[in-house]
Design goal:
By secondary structure, the protein is α+β, with helices and mostly antiparallel strands. It folds into 2 domains: about 10-165, Di-heme elbow motif domain (Multiheme cytochrome fold), CATH 1.10.3820.10; about 205-520, paralog of FGE (formylglycine-generating enzyme), CATH 3.90.1580. The protein is about 30% helix and about 10% strand. It has helices spanning about 1-35, 40-45, 50-55, 70-75, 80-100, 115-120, 125-130, 140-155, 260-270, 280-300, 335-350, 360-370, 380-385, 390-395, and strands at about 205-210, 215-220, 225-230, 245-250, 250-255, 355, 435-440, 455, 465-470, 485-490, 515, 520. The strands form 3 sheets. A 5-stranded antiparallel beta sheet has the order 1-2-5-12-6. A hairpin with a 6-residue loop joins strand 1 and strand 2 (about 215-220). The longest helix is centred in the N-terminal third of the chain and has 34 residues, at about 1-35. The relative contact order is 0.11.
Length: about 525
């Protein structure tokens, strides 16, 4: 009996000791679990230079109320949820692994500031947990409109707070969420010209915008016949590129590069409407101008000649449309198709020549530069792409393509100046990559099936809902910057977070890598 009693006591002692150890280990684990969410703990792995400084300059630290928002409050879901535990565990493992295996100097920290990355590490639920009242005292009318739009469309459009408030956690001097004031000043380039360039022969020329020192280099593209589209057997070709068919295009001039910020701001400074002109009036007046320009191109009289006022240009954009990447010679981006068309109308009126967006056939012909291969330079998509399993494991061979195209591998997730690349055989830069470029054609997946073989100067479908865009952009894979790659605008999606009513007809809120280059018709008195 005594032996049994001793065993029971011993069992209780072992159990109590185990429970005590368990409680201690639990308390230790909870302590370290909580400690691992402190700012100091986060800073052990997140060693990029600007993280603490930019946090202390942000409104989440430097604000009139004196409230300080810590790392975990934004970068983890609210506490007490399974999502919090899951996110903390997965992000912790990833951060530790990156800290051990990656070198700080090899990480592009600037790209981590971009919205595409931020939406992956900031949680909407956490924003709303702190900002319970979206209509606090002192909020502006624009703020009320924006937050009403958010409340009505959060679920339907998958809106996130960070889409509009990107710098509240880490201040970025290159970011702004306010209407742009004034006009960015193009850098001085030389003498101011009093009149446009004289074009007397079919040769390259510089279009000098009257009363400015800004010019647009134009390249003479000889007419010819080429095989448009791709063969079904070509690697990475898509159904909307089939069937490959012969197309003849007439000679034309095309801008050497995508329209730059300096060139676009010159147009903006002269035509900006500052919101005073209702959209319907802008459409009506610019529509009359467009009809007059088309009649002039065709050598026909126009009933609109006596009704045309000056071109009405863009309203001021919200924020910095260059995304803080820089202006100057970088391609102008985020403008709508309508804004690009209006730029052409304005330039036509300024110079007396017929400027327009290229047709899809003209664009592909110019991009190929006389070649019939996937790119105008040597190499195949299978060699350059990051999509294939082999290249994912062993790395893609980027020899060659890096010299001619700005794409996902070499762009640092932003546009680059045209000086970064070499020209194609026609002398055009950035035909592949950098930014998507508008074409005048309506998009249709079966457009090529509807185009007769041997067509001359085809203009695409007569109607449609989206326009063709070509060339891929800075975020595209190498397989998606082939000369034959087709894509189209996504008008509604590209205005997803624009809370204005009506939405802007000039600027997109949800796409960055979109721009345009222009074409000039050969004057009637010039022989190609």
């Amino acid at each position: 009996m005594k032996k049994r009693s001793k065993k029971v006591k011993k069992g209780w002692l072992v159990g109590l000791a185990g429970a005590f150890v368990g409680v201690v280990l639990t308390l230790v684990a909870v302590h370290f679990w909580d400690r691992s969410s402190t700012n100091e703990s986060c800073a052990v792995c997140h060693v990029h230079d600007f993280v603490e400084e930019s946090w202390k300059k942000s409104s989440h630290y430097n604000n009139p109320s004196g409230t300080k928002t810590d790392c975990a409050a934004c970068h983890l879901p609210p506490k007490g949820t399974f999502a919090y535990v899951k996110a903390k565990a997965s992000m912790g493992i990833k951060d530790i692994w990156s800290f051990i295996t990656k070198k700080k100097e090899n990480i592009d920290w600037e790209s981590k500031r971009d919205l595409e990355h931020a939406v992956k590490i900031v949680y909407n639920e956490s924003c709303k947990a702190c900002h319970v009242n979206l209509f606090p005292a002192g909020i502006s009318d624009d703020g009320i409109s924006a937050h009403l739009y958010y409340e009505e469309n959060e679920k339907k459009l998958d809106l996130q707070c960070i889409s509009c408030h990107l710098d509240v956690g880490h201040y970025n001097p290159n970011y702004s969420h306010a209407k742009m004031m004034g006009v960015p000043r193009p850098k001085e380039r030389g003498d101011i010209y009093a009149e446009p360039a004289s074009v007397t022969s079919f040769a390259n020329f510089k279009e000098q915008i009257p009363a400015t020192d800004i010019d647009i280099p134009m390249i003479a593209i000889p007419g010819g016949t080429f095989q448009m589209g791709s063969d079904k057997k070509d690697g990475y070709s898509q159904p909307d590129e089939w069937p490959r068919h012969a197309v003849t295009v007439s000679p034309f001039f095309m801008s050497e590069t995508e329209i730059t910020w300096d060139q676009f701001w010159t147009f903006y400074a002269e035509t900006m409407s500052e919101g005073r002109t209702p959209p319907e009036s802008v459409y009506a007046n610019n529509g009359r101008i467009a009809r007059r320009m088309e009649a002039r191109r065709l050598g026909q009289p126009s009933d609109d000649d006596d009704e045309v006022d000056a071109v009405s240009g863009p309203t001021p954009p919200f924020g910095n449309p260059d995304q803080g990447w820089g202006m100057g010679d970088r391609p102008a981006i985020t403008m709508t198709y309508y804004a690009a068309e209006t730029f052409c109308q304005w330039l036509s009126l300024k110079t007396g020549r017929n400027y327009r967006l290229p047709t899809e056939a003209e664009w592909e012909y110019a991009s190929r530069g006389g070649t019939e291969t996937p790119y105008f330079f040597e190499g195949k998509p299978a060699r350059f792409t990051s999509k294939s399993l082999r290249n994912k494991v062993f790395g893609a061979d980027t020899t060659g393509i890096n010299r001619y195209a700005i794409y996902a591998v070499n762009s640092r997730n932003r546009t680059q100046e045209p000086s970064r690349v070499k020209a194609n055989p026609f002398g055009l830069k950035n035909m592949l990559g950098n930014v998507l470029e508008y074409c005048s054609d309506w998009y249709s997946a079966d457009a090529y099936a509807q185009t007769p073989d041997g067509a001359v100067d085809p203009k695409g479908p007569a109607t449609g809902t989206e326009h063709v865009v070509r060339g891929g952009n800075y975020a595209a894979d190498a397989a998606d910057v082939r000369s034959a790659t087709r894509a189209h605008t996504e008008h509604d999606a590209w205005l997803r977070t624009d809370p204005q009513n009506p939405k802007s007809i000039w600027w997109y809120s949800d796409v960055k890598g979109i721009g345009f280059r222009i074409v000039c018709d050969v004057p009637a008195d010039v022989v190609p």
